[in-house]
Amino acid sequence: METEKIINELHFKAVRSSGAGGQNVNKVSSKVVLTFDLNASQALNEEEKTLIETKLATKLTSENLLILNCDEDRSQLKNKAIVKKRFLELIEKALTVQKKRKPTKIPRSVIEKRIKEKRNTSEIKENRKKPKL
């Protein structure tokens, strides 16, 4: 993953933020909306694109656009930095491939213990029966 190339492909848009803030909310566009077009990306190869598409399927639109918002801060620059960091973490997490789990061998002592327990329970149940004369 080439971070610099991906950052160059991002599109930012400043929007008026909602919520509390009085008159300042109506004047200042501090909310930042980040959009990333997965299909048009030159920084990612086809394998990475399919991996991201499968892992982030719930966050992508029907046109494979990833849209992130940030209106945590009053500053547009801080919101832009926050949303950029969030985007890079999301992409990095989506591109990590989990190691395949190796099933461990069951220890011999565990198998012997299980068989011993089975014998004990069968003897207990056998002793509950009426004796044959």
Percent of residues in β-strands:
5-15%
- Secondary structure class reads alpha+beta
> The CATH topology of one domain, please?
Double Stranded RNA Binding Domain
How many helices? The count is 5
What's the number of extended β-strand segments? 3
C-alpha geometry: elongated
Q: Indicate the percent of residues in helices.
A: 40-55%
* Span of the ends, CA to CA: 81 Å
Element order, helices and strands? HEHEHEHH
The first-level CATH class name of one domain: Alpha Beta
- Uncertain parts: none
Determine Rg (CA atoms, Å): 29 Å
Keywords:
single chain; 133 residues; alpha+beta; Double Stranded RNA Binding Domain; 5 helices
Structure overview:
The chain has 133 residues and is of the alpha+beta class. It has a domain at 3-95: Double Stranded RNA Binding Domain. Helices cover 47% and strands 14% of the residues. It has five helices and three strands, in the order αβαβαβαα. The chain is elongated and about 100 Å long. The model has no long low-confidence stretch (mean pLDDT 89).
